[in-house]
Design brief:
Transcription Regulator spoIIAA; 6-stranded mixed β-sheet
Amino acid sequence: MKESLTFDFCDMTIYDHYLVVVIKEGINIKSEHSDVLVEVTNTYYPNKPFVYITHRINSYSVDPKIYYQTVKIENLKGFAVVSNNYQAKVNAQIEQMFFTKPFEIFTDLEDAFNWADRLIRNNAL
């Protein structure tokens, strides 16, 4: 499965076991954006484990408190940040402290896909 969704704040690509999100330039991610994520995951991953991958191409900010909501998504098994930008990686390290599930930072999208596949496979055992 591969399906694309577009929202005013991001573009999402739905895969079988992971969701790739590209947030648009200048957005400040808050709880209402997390509500959209919950709706999407309820639609595309009902009772099915998945990994959230954020591909940080653009510059935007995240209120780290949203991770307290995001982590409550039961079938969310992990969170990956993909970026080549030093500041985005530093920000991700700070965000990592607010997230209690597996959270990794990558420079390559393919590495994030491989990690997500392993994470899903290990959770299926």
